[in-house]
From TrEMBL, chains A, B:
Organism this protein belongs to: Kribbella antiqua
Residue intervals of the HTH tetR-type domain: 30-90
Keywords: DNA-binding, Transcription, Transcription regulation
Listed InterPro entries: DesT_TetR_C, Homeodomain-like_sf, HTH-type_TetR-like_transc_reg, HTH_TetR, Tet_transcr_reg_TetR-rel_C_sf
Compositionally biased tracts (Low complexity): 1-12
Molecular functions (GO terms): DNA-binding transcription factor activity; transcription cis-regulatory region binding
Keyword set includes Nucleotidyltransferase: no
Record region (Disordered): 1-31
GO biological process, one term: negative regulation of DNA-templated transcription
DNA-binding interval(s): 53-72
UniProt-recorded name of the protein: TetR family transcriptional regulator
Length: 226, 226
DNA sequence: CGAGTAACTTACTGCGAGTAAGTTCTTCTC
DNA sequence: GAGAAGAACTTACTCGCAGTAAGTTACTCG
């Protein structure tokens, strides 16, 4: 659907424009790259990484496959380019919410809410992220494994910083324990996001954030000094 | 390694056995199925789902590809068959540990320890499980998504049961909150398992389990009544 | 207008999943 | 021990898709 294969005649198109629409051919490189990226983001979001072929994307944009290879190098390259934009947005949104908060308790809650709200507002984004990206990260897994590990690492560092903020002033905690806690929280929020995206009427972001906060807050004070 | 391509000559092998070894050809179906399954488990564990071709498996067993298709239907079918065995073992191990424990607090801790220990003891298993299986489960993700969702669902139900056990007698909690808590714990343990498998000197299962227990235990008492 | 280059295409290769149509080996009956 | 019946197994393909080589068309700037 969505008007595939356009009205551009494949061969003699130079005589075009007789119907009025200036058949956009030969756009500027930057513009084409953006166009391809947007189409790819949409199609990957709909059909997943495996389910999308480069020919699909090429057809959607109305361009031939080698052009995409010239601009993005490989299917992985194209996918990573999609991921880069999306994760930057997500990370920025959550970081902003955390940094805007007053104390540590508030920061944690605000971060959770921002996370779940962002994913509610950008379901397509979320599809791209989790498909082989955010989650598929076994040893030889998907192509985006390394890239999404970066995002995750950034989140984990953010969480670890919050945990440290929460310690009594001047105290330090066992680094292992901080890491374990940060990994746990990261894992919990990812799993909750997936869960919410797959059930018909998920609890509100606030509800989930509050429950998670209740679950974790007290335990965060039990970190031992090394 | 491990003596690839065997000594069976591809063409005229009926005149074989001149060297002594009774070149095992034409085994019983059950035996062949097991043989294929074991090879597949190993290769999937080493190279991942994507990185393994059916020809690889066929060559490893010393058999032709269509035979594998006859027995397992498809690459997905073969992968799922591997998964089925592994997850059954994992689920059983953890369940046993939980059920053998005295009270709820002990059950939670014992479950964590059993989980991390099992994965330490079966790294190959773990590779197969996380590669596109345990984690890759976006909308149109890997083939094993549905299968591993089942395992996860089983764990989540186990966790939810433990949480309920922990409530004051006669009390009931908001089902949404129980679900949120169970999803969180499942996500945390999965992420921790991946993290541990990817760093050089991970903390012991007991250490991780203890930290997780500390993090969660107090919060488990904050569940509201609906 | 013509040279130079950026934008783009046609037409392939190669690999890997899956299949059609057999070909041997084994056993079971007479 | 024939020889039929069926299970175990193979050769030789098709088809879809990632990736590429080599060329062609349109814009731009002297």
């Amino acid at each position: 659907m969505t008007s595939t294969t356009h009205n551009t005649p494949p061969t003699t198109e130079s005589a075009a424009a007789e119907n009025g629409g200036p058949v956009k051919r030969r756009r500027d490189r930057r513009a084409r790259e953006r166009e391809i990226l947007e189409a790819a983001e949409r199609i990957f979001g709909e059909r997943g990484y495996q389910g999308t072929s480069m020919d699909d994307v090429a057809a959607e944009v109305g361009v031939s496959k080698p052009l995409i290879y010239q601009y993005y190098g490989s299917k992985d390259g194209l996918f990573l380019a999609c991921l880069a934009r999306l994760r930057a947005q997500l990370l920025e949104t959550v970081s902003d919410a955390v940094l805007a908060a007053g104390d540590a308790e508030d920061a944690l809650y605000a971060g959770f809410v921002a996370w779940f709200e962002f994913l509610d507002d950008h379901p397509q984004t979320w599809s791209v992220l989790i498909d082989e990206g955010m989650l598929g990260m076994g040893p030889a897994a998907g192509p985006a494994a390394a890239a999404t590990d970066e995002v995750r690492a950034a989140f984990i560092e953010l969480i670890a910083a919050m945990v440290r903020m929460n310690l009594p002033p001047g105290r330090t905690a066992d680094p292992d324990e901080i890491e374990i806690v940060a990994q746990s929280i990261s894992g919990a929020t990812e799993r909750l996001a997936i869960w919410r995206s797959r059930i018909p009427a998920p609890p509100t972001p606030e509800k989930v954030a509050q429950t998670l906060q209740n679950l974790l807050w007290q335990g965060l004070h039990t970190l031992r000094t090394p």
